[in-house]
Amino acid sequence: MKIKSGDTVIVISGKDIGKKGKVLTVLPKKNRVIVEGVNMLTKHQKSTGPMQEGGIINQEGPLDVSNVMYYCDRDKKGVRIGYKFLENGKKVRVCKECGEELD
Question: Among 101, 66, 68, 64, which residue's Cα sits nearest to residue 82?
Fold first, then answer.
């Protein structure tokens, strides 16, 4: 999976198409990501004690990783990600449009 936690991504399909956000969590076994402010779900939570209040809570739901693209600040659009090896043997992610190193 080429998307990592902390990356800025743009949604390319679904009900939130065109929205940008920061990746909060990556779920590689399920091939999903949770993006800040995207795919908001309504959860009804029961109070579990005297200090915990119940009510309706809005939270982000997981998106399939194929529905998001990395957002490149230099190109101002969603781009594909590739890999490149440096001279010291380190493997880094690069933007396929402008060639900028992401890591």
Answer: 101
Rounded to two decimals, the pTM is 0.86
* Dihedral class, residue 73 (left if φ above 0, else alpha if ψ from -120 to 50, else beta): alpha
Q: From CA 28, how far away is CA 31, in angstroms rounded?
A: 5
Q: What is the CATH number of the domain that holds 54?
A: 2.30.30.30
pLDDT at 82 over 90: yes
pLDDT band at 52 (very low <50, low <70, confident <90, very high): confident
Checking if the pLDDT of 65 tops 90, the result is yes
Q: Which residue has the tokens 């969590």?
A: 25
Residue 85 placed within a domain: no
Please indicate, yes or no, if residue 51 is contained in any of the structural domains. Answer: yes
Closest residue by Cα to residue 14 from 80, 60, 63:
63
The pair of three-digit structure tokens given for residue 62, joined into one six-digit string: 């997981």
Mean pLDDT, rounded, for 38-67:
93
